[in-house]
Amino acid sequence: MTLLSQGAEARVFKTSFGLKEVCIVKERFRKTYRHPVLDEKLSKRRTILEARCLVRAKKCGIDAPAVYLVDPVKSLIYMEFVEGETMKAFFNRELNDHAKRNEISTKIGTSLAKLHNADVVHGDLTTSNMMLRAGTESVVFIDFGLSFVSNLTEDKAVDLYVLERALASTHPQSHVLLDAILASYFKDVKDSKQVLKKLEDVRLRGRKRDQTG
Amino acid sequence: MENITQIPVPSLFNPYDPNAASTETPAEAKNGHPSVFYALLFQNVSNAKELKAKVIAGDPELPQCVMVNPALVLSSFQLQTACSRAYMNQAQNNMKTKTILSEILFSLSPSLNIAESMKLFGLSDNSNSIFVLVPSADDASVDETTINKLKNLVQGDLSPAHSFSDLTDLKLLKKVYKLNDAVDQSNTVLEDLIVGGIATKGFL
Ligand SMILES: Nc1ncnc2c1ncn2[C@@H]1O[C@H](COP(=O)(O)OP(=O)(O)OP(=O)(O)O)[C@@H](O)[C@H]1O
């Protein structure tokens, strides 16, 4: 058993799980500042929602880690260990292969449209929360820790905006990546006009907020 | 024992944190359950009705085992996750059925209805083939006595090692696990969805 990552909300371990030689166990840990009973309830609910969103995402045809076991009492999700690199690492490595960057960005948009068409809002779209599966080069969405189910275009637009901001702060030439992602996203997403309109609203609000600080 | 497939039941994860207030150590977290189930496949079974009656009556002649309908089993990992889920329920005093063996069968099923689950995933009067899951002995070895008892009880052929998906009724499986609307119908994704369903069953 090894500790892969220690985030603000969760610890991610790599271990084995019977027939699976490798497995990820994600532990949402307790917030000591919260009332223990409330905290337990929230952790439990959040763990279950994360697992359900992972399964729902897979059902709608996008690639996400398979869920093996959910332990709401200990706030654990046992899931598939995805072999590959994070999207962040990939984009940073392939700085000059524009065709490749474009190809993968297009895949991200297509997958995201599928996710939104199934009313799953990811909630934390960053290039650290996507992976590129080794071998198949499929785009894998991970970390559904803030995900929820919603059919509101507003929620989908905010999801896109979060991604837009994350790209801008993480990657040089982010607009090239973003353009390719959005082009394929809007080609496939349901109610694309409304989502686009909402995205423009959300951007405007974001800019206003930035100005007034 | 080349005709017996092993289904490991891993111990549940315990993130050991030396700074945590908990006094639980990895040693204490060791699995309090069999570490392996042995899956025997009987084919051309002629006495399913009689066996089912024994299961229902809790006949003491019948050794500790779970009898599963192979039509609804796609892979050994599916069986592993159902076992893990059942033992987790047991450890957390959260079983929905009376015994760990029925809890394994119930865990396999996506339905929350116990009777319906038993009917779908267990034996039926006219079952022609049966998977029998036998818990390992304390030292994880094959429990020979149990296996010999089963060979005497089940009128049918103990089949050699096989691929689980050979006996799957895909159409029925997809209906039962509600997988017809899954976008990707490859066996890998179907398995992932089945396992995900077992893992999240009953959690809202
Ligand atoms: N299924 C997986 N397969 C492989 N690696 C994974 C998997 N899940 C998580 N990881 C690795 O662990 C890291 C953290 O995982 P995750 O984002 O789910 O946890 P988190 O605590 O919410 O993270 P953060 O707080 O940093 O956003 C990921 O960036 C990835 O490198």
From TrEMBL, chain A:
It is found in: Nucleus. Keywords: ATP-binding, Hydrolase, Kinase, Nucleotide-binding, Nucleus, Phosphoprotein, Serine/threonine-protein kinase, Transferase, tRNA processing. One of its GO terms (biological process) is tRNA processing. SUPFAM superfamilies: Protein kinase-like (PK-like). It holds the Pfam family RIO1. InterPro entries: Bud32, Kinase-like_dom_sf, Prot_kinase_dom, RIO_dom, Tyr_kinase_AS. PROSITE patterns: PROTEIN_KINASE_DOM, PROTEIN_KINASE_TYR. Gene3D superfamilies: Phosphorylase Kinase, domain 1, Transferase(Phosphotransferase) domain 1. It is an enzyme of class 2 (transferase). Its EC number is 2.7.11.1. GO terms for molecular function: ATP binding; hydrolase activity; protein serine/threonine kinase activity. Belongs to the protein kinase superfamily. BUD32 family. This is non-specific serine/threonine protein kinase. It comes from Rhizoclosmatium globosum. The lineage of its organism: Eukaryota, Fungi, Fungi incertae sedis, Chytridiomycota, Chytridiomycota incertae sedis.
TrEMBL record, chain B:
It is found in: Nucleus. GO terms for biological process: tRNA threonylcarbamoyladenosine modification. One of its GO terms (cellular component) is nucleus. Gene3D superfamilies: CGI121/TPRKB. Keywords: Nucleus, tRNA processing. Component of the EKC/KEOPS complex that is required for the formation of a threonylcarbamoyl group on adenosine at position 37 (t(6)A37) in tRNAs that read codons beginning with adenine. The complex is probably involved in the transfer of the threonylcarbamoyl moiety of threonylcarbamoyl-AMP (TC-AMP) to the N6 group of A37. CGI121 acts as an allosteric effector that regulates the t(6)A activity of the complex. The EKC/KEOPS complex also promotes both telomere uncapping and telomere elongation. The complex is required for efficient recruitment of transcriptional coactivators. Belongs to the CGI121/TPRKB family. This is EKC/KEOPS complex subunit CGI121.
